[in-house]
From TrEMBL:
Xref: Pfam families: DUF4956 (PF16316)
InterPro entries named among the record's database cross-references: DUF4956
Keywords: Membrane, Transmembrane, Transmembrane helix
Membrane keyword on record: yes
Protein name: DUF4956 domain-containing protein
TM region(s), chain numbering: 6-25, 32-50, 56-71, 83-98, 104-120
Length: 198
């Protein structure tokens, strides 16, 4: 078992380095979350490897997975993209920790997880659609006019929108918009958009 863990450790460290540094940090430039992913991964790997060496049941290992997931998701607000990286870092630590005795499966699953995140979060896919929650300083009663106004303000093609709130006293509308930016609009898929007043 000691030899298997000696192989699993560098595999795990390489996988989380590629995920957190080569993929996540280079695309999103958030040092805090990249560090959190590495720390989480190494911690889960250490605990799962210890449980495996002590012959603890896999049920307890997956219980740990669930507890860590709940604690992290309740701690603060992060985007759904960051949640994906979080679960991948968690899964890598667990897979490499408890799968040390089956190196081929362990390496194959690690490659699959990292490759999946590389493709799913590729800038070419992320650039296709954006999301904003916008507060307009006018009230449109016609949906066609509303869509035209949104496209003019956002500089792109509106794919879907939903009116969240209409305030006739202040003459404002809150609209949840998903749109595709035009070729001339500078691409910044990593930006988090707050409520925008336009």
């Amino acid at each position: 078992m000691g030899l298997a863990l000696a192989l699993a450790l560098p595999v795990n460290l390489f996988a989380i380095t590629v995920l957190a540094c080569a993929i996540y940090y280079r695309r999103h430039h958030r040092t805090d979350l990249a560090l959190a992913y590495v720390a989480l991964n190494v911690g889960v790997f250490a605990v799962s490897a210890l449980m495996l060496s002590q012959q603890v049941s896999l049920g307890l290992a997956f219980g740990l997975f669930g507890v860590l997931s709940i604690l992290r998701l309740r701690s603060d607000q992060i985007s759904q993209r960051d949640v994906g990286y979080y679960f991948t870092a968690l899964a890598l630590g667990l897979i490499n920790g408890i799968g040390a005795s089956r190196p081929a499966v362990m390496i194959g699953l690690s490659v699959l997880l990292v490759l999946t995140m590389y493709i799913a979060d590729h800038p070419r896919l992320a650039n296709r659609s954006r999301h904003r929650l916008i507060v307009l300083d006018t009230v449109h009663r016609d949906e066609t006019a509303l869509q035209a106004d949104l496209e003019r303000r956002l500089g792109g093609t509106v794919r879907k929108f939903e009116v969240i709130d209409t305030d006739y006293v202040r003459e404002t509308m809150t609209v949840d918009v998903r749109f595709r930016p035009s070729a001339e609009t500078p691409a910044n898929p990593d930006r988090t958009y707050p409520i925008a007043r336009v």
